[in-house]
Amino acid sequence: MAEGRREQPPHPLLSLPPASKRPCLRPAPRGPGPGPGHGSGLPSSRYRSPESLLDCAAKAVAEKWAFERVEERFERIPEPVQRRIVYWSFPRNEKEICMYSSFQYGLPFRRGIRLLETGCVESVLQVGFHLSGTVTEPATSSEPEVTHKVAISFDRCKITSVTCGCGNRDIFYCAHVVALSLYRIRKPEQVKLRLPISETLFQMNRDQLQKLVQYLITAHHTEVLPTAQKLADEILSSNSEINQVHGAPDPTAGASIDDDNCWHLDEDQVREQVKQFLSQGGYYGSGKQLNSMFAKVREMLRMRDSNGARMLTLITEQFMADPRLSLWRQQGTGMTDKCRQLWDELGALWVCVVLNPHCKSEEKSGWLKQLKKWGDLDVCPLEDGNYGSELPNITNALPPRRSVFSRAVEACDLHWQDSHLQRIISSDHYMSPSYQREGESLLFNPQGLPLCLDHVPTACARVDALRSHGYSREALRLAVAIINTLRLQQQRQMDIYKHQKKELLQRGVTSTTNLEGWVGHPLDPIGCLNEILKKEHKLNRKLTLPPVYHHVPVWGSPDGGESYLTLALEVALMGMGQQRIMPEGLYAQDKVCRNEEQIVAKLQELELGDLLVQTLRKQAIQLLEAGPFSGLGEVIHRESVPMHTFAKYLFSALLPHDADLAYKLALRAMRLPVLESSTGSGDVGHPHHGISIVPSRYPRWFTLGHLESQQCELASTMLTAAKGDMLRLRTVLEAIQKNIHSSSLIFKLAQDAFKIATPADNPPDITLLNVALELGLQVMRMTLSTLNWRRREMVRWLVTCATEVGLRALVSILQSWYTLFTPTEATSIVAATVMSHNTILRLSLDYPQREELASCARTLALQCAMKDPQNCALSALTLCEKDHIAFETAYQIVIDAASTGMTYSQLFTIARYMEHRGYPLRSFKLASLAMTHLNLAYNQDTHSAINDVLWACALSHSLGKNELAAIIPLVVKSVHCATVLSDILRRCTMTAPGLAGIPGRRNSGKLMSTDKAPLRQLLDATISAYINTTHSRLTHISPRHYGEFIEFLSKARETFLLAQDGHIQFAQFIDNLKQIYKGKKKLMMLVRERFG
Predict the structure, then answer these.
(1) I need a labelling partner for 677 at 20 to 30 A (CA). Which of 468, 748, 861, 1032 fits?
(2) Measured between alpha carbons, how far is 390 from 403 in angstroms, rounded to an integer?
(3) How many whole angstroms separate alpha carbon 802 and alpha carbon 947?
(4) What is the pLDDT of residues 633-642, one digit of tens each?
(5) How far, in Å, CA of 299 to CA of 305, rounded?
(6) Regarding predicted confidence, which is higher, 341 or 66?
(7) Does residue 863 surpass a pLDDT of 50?
(8) In Å, how far are 100, 102, 184, 561, 902 from 95, measured between CA atoms?
(9) How many C-alpha atoms does 315 have within 13 Å on its Cβ side?
(10) Where in the numbering of this chain does the ZSWIM4-8 C-terminal domain appear (predicted)?
């Protein structure tokens, strides 16, 4: 019999893993009979005979009882019984080996199968509860053949420890352990089987035992000899600890009664890998790896393996130890979306764990204590978002702090003892008696089918827990009961609305809403129900193929035409159509949008046959008629989550079967009440990401930009479908104009409509083109008085669209330009494009049509020039060139505006244009006006207007002496830069004036003298400018500028010498400098060297 106390051996012998080594005094007495042979297994017969009673009993005992308990319970255990118990104690299910070897049939498991099938497993021996063998890795081009020793300990059909010579350091078993395990499962008759080694030793006498020990030491003297000598010394010492213990450890004798019966899981490796993945911050595939670990936890739960909760605990410990948590909290910043989703899955898994219908109360208590401990830590992430989102709610009070573990903590209070709940999950045929179906019942619907009394998300959490723990049939029954409950609630809500409809429609708004929606809920109730209803009826299970489903009838359905697939569709439609308040916080709102898209993606997997279309139509009608309880009802709360994504799916699904219903539903869903009640008719700006435009007492809509884009997608889908149908297009257009408040999105819709209306290989669709034009005109009006960086693009596109529509559209936008464009846009873009040669060719216009268009363009140009002469005058002159009266009018507008509202640069530009067009005198007049607005300081020798001044002087010079005489006083008054004045003077003295050849003018051909007017005035001004500039420069001159200053004086001397007494003036000027600035000795020395 075995003793109750366990003893660890002083040194592991051979390659034995650290298995259970409970002390054994002696083996139980052997019973009569030879028993099975050494390689006993199932008889290798062509026909399998029924299992014997011995095998049936041995299988049950091997799975449930520790072998020590068997030894204690029975005084005599016949050897055949021992052999069968030992035989059946090894795991029998390959799925369990796979679960512990890789993620979802991964590489180690497949490699293990290949090693087994290629004969690489040899020398397999089972001694008691210990299996050993060798696995040879075949040679490759880069690696030689390697043989690994593998040892496995097991107990009650679970592998409790593994050791492999390959030195594998991973959470999962290596391929060699897999190969040996599968060898034992697939070829048990080829495995040599021995009873625990203590049994064999008991049969030996003293000489045999001594011989065994000496041979063992000889075979492994380098490894065993020190340990053997140490043990011998301790045994020979009467007071040693080893002599205080009865019996001796046997690593092959199986587990003790007190040992945990669980599969081997390397806890250190779990911690290390989770820590490593977290440190990578979701990059390099670490997020995918962590999700795979979560999936492994679910797989363990489904196999009802206690390591599921154990592994989840290890993962959670590392998540809570993530150093980024404290950093995020200190900085008040949020974690990344990937990381946030991992925490959500962690919380959901704990709900599944604590809702295990067969967990022990002490287990649940332990989990509850640990979950509360984690949840109370400051760094623990919150359920509804990041650390920075703890904002006051509508009542301006901080809500109670809810961590990601709060749902799991609450789930610990739930139990499965309710008799009604037990009957629901245990039978498909649970119904109320027919005589009890009169009147209302809390437990059954009018058809007698059971109802679920739990809050919907809680009930769905139960479904998820049942499915996760391998109770799929029970989960399915509870899911059906939940749907029956939802149906009854929906019917009652519709009855309530019928009595309140008139009053609600008069008010136009409702306060009725769900504060906790099912879409985006932490427990994902809709996704959970949808998954369980669809999963059992998937025809193809391969992950690489698109899913194919079939209908399985639901027992007890009223008309017998329901299947679990129709229920899956119905519950998804109910959940998506639920009217619910927009949650607070960026993450919670983003989760609503993401979850909605996930559900729609799942629905799109379904091929809509007659049954599903019938369900779709029925539920769509109910959602439209459910009033404030439906997000598609006639009256909704202003903070209600929009239905755009959901409605887009419904529209596309219903359109081939019931177009009227599809349009009615999609048009109803176009609304966005939060904007409709808070903005005027103008543009509210775009994008809205992170910006709240609703009053501060409401939460900010962080996802408003995304919601508006989904609204735009819905509208675009309807426009595409309504192509060619003028009535439907007009209805969709009105809905867009009423409900979409973003100019950028309306512009996108206009572009989409234009693209669809003008296919490359077909004639354009004029109805859709008109809609595109209408939308474009609305965009122009919305953005006319606001800043929009795409405005120029929008204007150009509108002209293109109007051109495609035709002449009348172009005439219309030209005549109503002031409601659509700024004067600059109207002249420089719109009118210029309309009058271009390409437009004329595109429209194939005859002469009267061209004249009509040109007349409108000229009228527009003159109106714009009057309104904004600074920016439109030149464009107006250009557009009016071919009409003398219009051109003269435009010129007069410029002259009138020149003295007040126009800058010198604008006037110079128009003046150059006039010269280019052959109007030199008008050009001179405008240049003279420009000079009156100019002021060029002494140090502005690189001013942008210098070229214009030189050009104006050259123009005046070319026109004649009178014009030059007229402009020189303006130059002297406006220009104070000596170098510019000297340049003008030099140019005027090089040629005779009047070279322009103006009719009626006579050119004298004589050069002008600087001693006479008008150049005398210019010369005096230039000399004066040089003197003033010299004094200004000397005030703050530095030695490094001395050379430059000397060159400046040299240029000044050239100008001085143009006067009759210029050399005398310059000499006096130099003497004056020497006297005034005699303190600048070095500079004055340079002046003397150059100028005397």
Answers:
(1) 748
(2) 12
(3) 42
(4) 988 888 899 9
(5) 9
(6) 341
(7) yes
(8) 9, 11, 14, 37, 87
(9) 25
(10) 906-1083
Q: Which of 449, 400, 445 is CA-nearest to residue 429?
A: 449
**What's the pTM?**
0.78
d(CA 759, CA 163): 69
Q: Taking 70 as the threshold, does the pLDDT of residue 686 lie above it?
A: no
Structure tokens at 848: 């009267």
Residue 926 has a pLDDT of: 95
Compute the average pLDDT of residues 594-622. 93
Distance, CA of 760 to CA of 755 (rounded, Å):
9
Contact 1052, 978 (CB under 8 A): yes
Report pLDDT digits (tens) over 181-237: 999 999 998 888 888 888 788 888 888 888 888 888 888 877 788 888 888 888 888
Residue 762 and residue 756: Cα distance in Å, rounded? 11
* Identity of the highest mean pLDDT range in 54-63, 74-83, 521-530: 521-530
Q: How many CB atoms are located within 10 Å of the residue 222 CB?
A: 6
Angle between helix axes 472-507 and 564-577 (nearest 10 degrees) is: 40
Virtual torsion, Cα 417, 422, 426, 429, nearest 10 deg: 170
Three-class SS state of 158:
strand
The one-letter code for the residue type at 300 is M
Alpha helices in 564-703 (DSSP H): 564-577, 586-603, 610-625, 644-654, 659-669, 673-676
Spatial distance between the Cα atoms of 755 and 764, rounded to a whole number of angstroms: 10
Tokens of 153: 């300990």
User: Which own/partner pairs from 455-459 qualify as long-range (CB within 8 Å, at least 24 positions apart)?
Assistant: 456/482, 456/485, 456/486, 456/518, 456/525, 457/516, 457/518, 457/521, 457/523, 457/525, 458/411, 458/414, 458/523, 459/485, 459/525
Q: 501 — phi, psi (to 5°)?
A: -60, -50
Give the pLDDT band of residue 892 (cuts 50, 70, 90).
Answer: very high
Q: How far apart are the C-alpha atoms of 1057 and 1045, rounded to whole Å?
A: 19
Those residues whose C-beta lies under 8 Å from the C-beta of residue 570, and which sit 6 or more positions away, are 483, 615, 619
**What is the Cα–Cα distance from 367 to 435, expressed in whole angstroms?**
45
Query: Which two structure tokens, joined as six digits, stand for 808?
Result: 């009348």
The whole-chain average pLDDT of the chain stands at 84
Q: Which amino acid would we find at residue 1034? A: L
Q: Is the pLDDT of residue 694 over 60?
A: no
Specify the DSSP class assigned to residue 578. B
- Mean pLDDT (whole number) for 266-276: 87
Banded model confidence at residue 27, pLDDT cuts 50, 70, 90 = very low
For residues 22 and 256, is the Cβ–Cβ distance under 8 A? Answer: yes
Q: What are phi and psi of 978, to 5 degrees?
A: -60, -45
Q: How far apart are CA 1063 and CA 451, in angstroms?
A: 117
159 backbone φψ class: left, alpha, beta (φ>0; ψ -120 to 50): beta
Block residue for tokens 């670990």:
293
Positive/negative CA dihedral, 873, 874, 876, 881: positive
**What letters, b where the CB count within 10 A reaches 16 and e where it falls short, cover 536-558?**
bbeeeeeeeeebebeeeebebbe
Where is pLDDT greater, at 219 or 853?
853
Cβ atoms of 646 and 707 closer than 8 Å: no
| 3-state secondary structure at position 45 | coil
In Å, how far are 871, 888, 1087 from 864, measured between CA atoms?
Answer: 9, 15, 59
Question: What is the per-residue pLDDT across 978-1015, written as a single tens digit (0 to 9) for each?
Answer: 999 999 998 888 876 766 555 555 555 567 777 787 88
Query: Cβ(970)–Cβ(931) under 8 Å?
Result: yes
